[in-house]
Every structure is written in structure tokens, then in C-alpha cells.
Amino acid sequence: MERQYFYYIIFFLLLHHSDAQVGINTSNPAAALHINNISDNEKNGIILPQLDEFPVTMTADQDSMMIYITGNGSVNKGYWFYEHGSGWRKLIDSTSAESLQMYRNPKFPDGMKGIQPVTHDLKTGGYSVPAGKNLYITSLYNSRNIGNMIVLDNTTSLSFTLISNTEASYTFPTFNNPILVGQNDLLGGTFVFNGFLVDATVDPIYTFSSYTVPANKIFIYLTSNNNSSSLPIAEIRIGATAVTQSGTNNSRSGNVEALAMPLFIDAGETINNMQSGSTMNGYLIDK
Questions:
Q1: Is the terminal CB of the chain with fewer CB neighbours within 10 Å at N or C?
Q2: 3-state class of 197 per DSSP?
Q3: Is 151:162 a contact under the CB 8 Å cutoff?
Q4: pTM above 0.85, yes or no
Q5: What pairing do the DSSP bridges indicate for beta strands 241-246 and 87-90?
Q6: H-helix or E-strand containing 7?
């Protein structure tokens, strides 16, 4: 009951003093809201709302909202914040090893914490990536030979062909880097995929033939698909400079080339896939 009254007091102060600094246990606040400790023997701190699952309806008004997930539901325990346009993001744990985990391997920038293996046959139905997770696809097989795998971007409502086979002789595409699919995005097609889910800390990107990297970001290019039986691979340029040729379409097995490692494109630079109708996949990180 005391905690309930404490919240009422905070909300009352914020409503009636929105143009001033608010202090609790201090008469000289040093910020918009300054909470001072009562004594060293008290339980000083702030307890965030504790939930078993993510709130259902979120809008731009809730951008930066933070909650604590108990671990009693389908979501991993810990502190989470909402980023409008991207979804729920988990705060990285404070230990140095885990804080650096997302930077250890550019192929798997989210690390392996909370890993959950996934195998799904898209011929039996689509697959929706759970909220708060990223999906890394590391293996694909298509018993029908000719087929594709398409992702519906939940944020933009655009569809992107991530994998295609336009030649009946080959039942699986060639790729070395994983295919990265974001939370709430829907996969469909004819492939069986294997991979894993982990807590989302980066934003997957799907783009067509050209992409300019936003300010203060770096784009890590993982794969591209060229939905053409005659041109399964294409020249990749950063700006006007050709850097490689790549593609995952197995229309001609001997000509398919998959990059062994990602490409890195700086803020303000443009990456171009010179094949019309192609799709590129990767992710953004802060500089």
C-alpha cells in the first residue's frame, strides 16, 4: 500500500510541476527527477513494472519505455526497453564478457545468449519470428528444387525474396553468412530452414538493389539474392567501387558465389547490387 501511495505522489508531482525539477528526499534536485536515498539502511532504488509478457499494443508514444520481464512467461527474464520501429530490445548484462558478446562475431552480432534452435518446414505454413528475438538461418533445403523464401517486413509491410532456386537440378542454395530475420517478421516459401533464435540487440535490414547507410550507423552486409536464372550472381559496389560478386540463387551451381565474411559499409555510403530485382540482407550497428 505504501508503494502505491509513493507512485501516486510521483505522478502528482510530475503533473503539477512539469515545468520544474522534481526532488524526492531532496530540496535541491539536480535533474528533471532527482530521487535521493533515505539512508544506507533502507532499500533505496526504483522498482520497474514487472510483467510476464510484453505489452500487446505499443505506439510511438511508448518509445523508450522500460519494463522488467519476470521470466515466468515466454520471454527471457531481464530489463527490456521499447524502440519504436524496431520493437523490444533487451539491455545487455553488465559483465564485461557479455557486454562484448555481440561484437565477437560479425556473422552473429546478437551473440548466443538465450539461444533457441529452430527447424521449420515453410511448406507446412509460414513462420513468424517472436517479439524480442532475431532469427539466424544457417541451413536451407528445398525438396521441390525450384522455389523461394520470402520475408514480409512487419515494419514496412514490404516483401523481400531472401533465397531463390530457379534451377531444378539443385535442391539447396549456397551461402556462408547467415540470413538474419527480425522480430515479428513473417517467413513464407517452400524451404525447410534450420537456425536459432536469440535476444534481439541489432536491427536486421532487408533492402532492394541499393541502400544508403543512415548517419551514425554502420551497415553489415551478409547475403544477397538475385532472382534470375541467367544472372544468379551480381557485382556488389560500395559507391562507385566494385568490391565483389555474390549471390545465393542456385540457378547455376558452378557460378553461385557466397561471401565467406560480411561487408562493412560506413554511414553515408551506398551499397549497390548491380542486378535488377535483387535483395540484400544484413543489419545496422551504431558507430
A1: N
A2: strand
A3: yes
A4: no
A5: unpaired
A6: helix 2-16
